[in-house]
Design brief:
The complex is a heterodimer. By secondary structure, chain A is mostly helical. Chain A contains 8 helices and no strands. The radius of gyration of chain A is 32 Å and the shape is elongated. Chain B is built from 9 helices and no strands. Classes of the chains: A mainly alpha, B mainly alpha. Chains A and B meet through α1, α3, α4 and α7 of A and α2, α3, α6, α7 and α9 of B.
Chain lengths: ~220, ~170
């Protein structure tokens, strides 16, 4: 194809498409534009393609259902069933020292979490022989976590005086989020006390609370 | 899309479902438009909106703020919809080299001057529709589309051109 040829020879399809979506540049584009200026057939075709693309890109051309917001109820139900507390995922890490501290905290948290899993599995192992006793094991675990959390909270209160305000605020925020989840789960369990998924979620939330408090203790 | 609701993103990452609900309210229409452009069925589009937000919740910790939250969510909607298309239509790009499928669909029903964009898109075969939406609306390159869909870049290009031609005919007054 010779774009600058007389207009009885037209631009080929790739050239027209490239002109329409603007992906052709440089001398090739200049030649093609010269051809368009002299060839009404190609000019009309490129204009048609261009307007089609523009029209399809117009966001307002897709109507949004009026009841889209009502879908949130279903989304929320699905989200709640997968609820996981993300601990201080975006805590400030501007200073080098804080970055090191953060790395150390996460490493410590990973170790503590593994230890908790091992401890938890030991507790659970003793009760695996009978299905009904499994619930008791979970309850024991929860009691143990709760007791440790209270002790760690006491320690946190002592350390708070020398803690950076920013760090304390982050810890408080995360604790509030976890406590809120624990409250919701306890409420749900009171209505459905034999639901194993709820018990697991509650145990997981407690583990995260203890983990957070241990990290706070190690950092102080 | 509206201004970036940074605070709600941070709160949602920490498990605040109410904050995530505000993000839903803010972003659901845009997510719906992405999904609806890629699938012909409105009910499917609504389900994909839900799937996108549930997936967003699950992956919030992966969002590091390198791009705008809305951009991240947008891409998630595209990926979710593509996976749905692959899952439900194994022949999505099978006839990509053949012109007849597109030709039949674009001429089988003569749309009158009132035809709108939504109806025109619905007339495209799924493969052509997907490539057109990804390239001309979402701004992905042919190479990116090739990676996302598993077809060759040249095939994607040919599919795009055919889709544009069909849409031009359908939208012509």
């Amino acid at each position: 194809m010779k774009p600058s040829a007389p207009h009885d020879i037209h631009l080929d399809e790739p050239m027209r498409q490239a002109l329409a979506d603007g992906t052709i540049t440089g001398p090739a584009r200049d030649d093609a534009l010269k051809h368009l200026a002299a060839c009404p057939h190609c000019a009309a075709d490129v204009a048609l393609l261009t307007s089609t693309i523009a029209r399809m890109r117009d966001q307002s051309t897709i109507s949004v259902p009026a009841d889209l917001e009502s879908l949130w109820t279903d989304v929320r139900a699905r989200v709640e069933s997968k609820k996981v507390i993300h601990l201080a995922a975006d805590a400030p890490t501007g200073r080098r020292g804080r970055r090191h501290l953060s790395t150390a905290l996460w490493s410590a948290a990973a170790l503590v979490f593994m230890a908790a899993l091992v401890a938890g599995s030991r507790i659970a192992w003793r009760h695996l022989t009978a299905g009904t006793l499994a619930e008791a094991a979970v309850a024991d675990s929860l009691d143990a976590y709760d007791a440790e959390a209270r002790a760690l909270l006491d320690h946190l209160e002592v350390e708070r005086a020398v803690m950076r305000r920013e760090t304390a605020a982050t810890i408080d925020h995360d604790l509030a989020a976890i406590d809120s989840a624990i409250e919701e789960l306890q409420l749900a369990l009171s209505k459905d006390p034999r639901n194993p998924a709820l018990r697991q979620l509650l145990a997981s939330s407690y583990r995260q609370k203890v983990s957070l408090l241990r990290r706070a203790r190690n950092a102080s | 899309m509206a201004a970036e609701p940074l605070d709600d993103v941070a709160l949602a990452r920490r498990g605040d479902v109410d904050a995530f609900g505000r993000l839903y309210k803010e972003s659901a229409p845009a997510v719906y438009r992405v999904c609806r452009r890629m699938v012909a069925d409105e009910t499917q589009a609504r389900e994909l909106v839900q799937d996108t937000f549930v997936r967003a919740w699950e992956r919030l910790t992966q969002f590091r703020g390198d791009s705008a939250f809305t951009t991240w969510l947008h891409r998630l909607a595209v990926t979710t919809t593509l996976e749905h298309l692959r899952r439900t239509r194994r022949d999505l790009f099978r006839h990509v080299e053949a012109d007849d499928d597109l030709a039949v669909r674009s001429t089988a029903s003569a749309l009158d001057a009132r035809v709108d964009v939504e109806a025109a898109l619905d007339k495209l075969p799924p493969g052509a529709r997907t490539v057109f939406v990804l390239h001309d609306i979402e701004g992905y390159s042919h190479d990116e589309i090739a990676r996302m869909t598993g077809i060759a870049a040249g095939t994607a290009r040919a599919q795009l051109w055919r889709a544009r031609r069909a849409l031009s005919k359908l939208l012509a007054p």
